[in-house]
Amino acid sequence: MKKILSGLIVASSLLATTAFAAGTVTAVDADQIDTTKCVLLDAPVKVNLSANVSGVYQCNDTDNSIRIATCHSSGSRSGPKELNCAQIGKDASNNPVFNDSSCSATVTKFTVPVSFSGFAASSTGGSIGEVPLTGKCDTTELKKQSVFSY
Predict the structure, then answer these.
(1) Are 92 and 63 in contact (CB under 8 A)?
(2) What pLDDT score does 12 carry?
(3) Single pTM value for the model
(4) Which candidate in 13, 41, 54, 87 could, as Cys together with 126 as Cys, close a disulfide (CB 3.0–4.6 Å)?
């Protein structure tokens, strides 16, 4: 997880000043994320995922951000459970985006009935937030996360 976070920090520090077309949510693979895969980058970034960790990213020109979500195939599996609300970024209007739609400045926790979870973050600021998954950890599940839909 530390390697993923390092990659996010490096990626966010390399953001270009000019926005381009919004990218699709893409699985992190063994290749570098270069300027052809993410036009917001000034230089290639290598995200090293640990064994059994899946990850996806998106370059978004709407708010000039890079978003990432990860999970581990044998990670968190208890439920129902209460999760802390975490601001994981800001939208194009500079409004906070949380790890669950029920979260706000006054709502600080939410309960999920599912047993799988991952983590999401955005280079627009905030923190890394735990996010519920509706099934076993894989790139398909990660692509459904709200961090990619604002």
Answers:
(1) yes
(2) 40
(3) 0.74
(4) 87
